[in-house]
Design a protein that fits this description.
Length: 409
């Protein structure tokens, strides 16, 4: 399993110029590759291979007056830009053939110098390293200061340098955790400890044991301040320095909300995985809910990010993670006798089962049904709750990582 560990970078002014040059060269190679593929498609010719594109757009281009400045950056950065194009077209073709699961992918678009997020990637053959002083040495950029919040558990296989919309720089390291070297000791949970989670808006999560976790509503808290900043931005002349300052103000507000939400999700998901042998959630149709009148609240809750964290942490630490179908009538079924009482409006938070007379809290009852639908109530004597999954590992860590396949960097 691969995880990403991200750390803040503080490049010096000269290093910022070198990074901007690398971002620009990678963007140009990416756009040239997309244009070459699109020209081949328009001419009804086979797509040029990655090797052909590498020779044409990098090796030969460096010897031309128009692209001679490509030689000022590491060639690995340019090769990784071509690999990004290859990955984008593979995802496109997999979507068209119906082989790709999840969100459908379209054709890669041209990158713009005005894109607020920029990134470049260095693999092992770029000969980057972390020196004894803790600085990150990057080819043709120099030794960049890193704010280390924890020690890396293993030697990284690659590093991605990211510039976000606020102007912050980050180094994202890919770590292979298959050998378990990054695991610290946790107290093992009860082998029968299992929890069902009902995600919602009134409360962010209600657990099958009756625990209710309030929704922080990070965006709602700063909504008034954010609206004011956006009004100021709309009144600035395009291309002016004042507009850029107003844009940064809006971007900082959004970044603060996103960072606080991610920290909340990390803390809660770690607590649930640490204390339970098995976790079950409902497979919510977040994309559909985000098109309703509750769209802002749905996005503010960030259910997808939280569920993704639960899933990869369960895999990482040997827990059982189950997603039940979104069509399971968890809010309509009595968790005591199993009687299905039909759909209920959202404002109805409590209801009484007409068969057994049990008074139910809507969300708590749904969380119990989520747990029962996943089969988590049948765990005995520490045996795996679902066949084929491993029991909890003895060594675990509290460090938080981001799954490699889930990270955009």
């Amino acid at each position: 399993m691969q995880l990403r560990y991200a750390f803040r970078l503080y490049p010096e002014p000269g290093q910022r110029v070198a990074l901007a040059r690398a971002f620009g060269c990678a963007r140009v190679v990416f756009n040239d590759a997309v244009r070459a593929r699109e020209d081949a498609r328009a001419a009804q010719q086979p797509y040029p291979s990655a090797a052909v594109l590498s020779r044409q757009l990098i090796t030969r281009a460096k010897n031309t007056p128009e692209r001679s400045w490509l030689g000022e950056v590491s060639s690995v950065v340019l090769q990784q830009a071509l690999r990004d194009v290859e990955a984008a077209y593979r995802n496109l073709f997999a979507t068209l053939k119906g082989e790709r699961q999840g969100r459908k992918m379209g054709a890669p678009r041209f990158r713009s110098r005005r894109d607020r997020r920029q990134s470049i990637r260095f693999t092992a053959n770029a000969r980057w390293k972390i020196n004894e002083g803790g600085r990150l040495a990057l080819p043709k950029i120099g030794e960049v200061k890193v704010k280390w919040s924890r020690a890396l558990p293993a030697v990284p296989s690659s590093v991605t340098v990211i510039l976000d919309a606020v102007g912050r720089y980050f180094a994202s390291f890919v770590i292979d955790t298959d050998d378990g070297t990054d695991r610290a000791r946790w107290t093992e949970p009860d082998p029968d400890a299992a929890i069902g989670i009902d995600l919602g808006l009134t409360h962010f999560a209600v657990l099958s044991d009756g625990t209710k976790i309030d929704s922080p509503r990070f965006l709602r808290r700063v909504e008034k301040k954010l609206k004011k900043a956006q009004r100021e931005l709309s009144g600035k002349r395009k291309g002016s320095k004042n507009r850029e300052e107003a844009r940064l103000k809006v971007a900082r507000a959004h970044a603060a909300v996103a960072d606080a939400r991610k920290e909340f999700h990390h803390q809660l998901s770690t607590k649930l995985i640490r204390e339970n042998q098995a976790v079950a959630v409902e497979d919510l149709a977040v994309a559909g809910l985000a098109r309703t009148r509750l769209a802002k609240s749905v996005h503010d809750a960030g259910w997808s990010q939280f569920v993704d964290m639960l899933e990869y942490k369960a895999q990482r630490y040997g827990r059982t993670f189950v997603k039940i179908s979104r069509f399971e009538p968890t809010s309509q079924t009595c968790s005591a006798c199993g009687h299905r009482d039909g759909p209920k409006p959202l404002h109805l938070r409590e209801w009484t089962c007409p068969r057994c007379g049990t008074l139910h809290d809507r969300d708590h009852n749904a969380a119990i049904n989520v747990k029962q639908a996943a089969g988590l109530a049948a765990s005995v004597c520490g045996a795996p709750i679902r066949p084929g999954l491993v029991p909890a590992q003895r060594e675990e860590t509290g460090s938080q990582g981001i799954p490699h396949q889930a990270c955009a960097a």
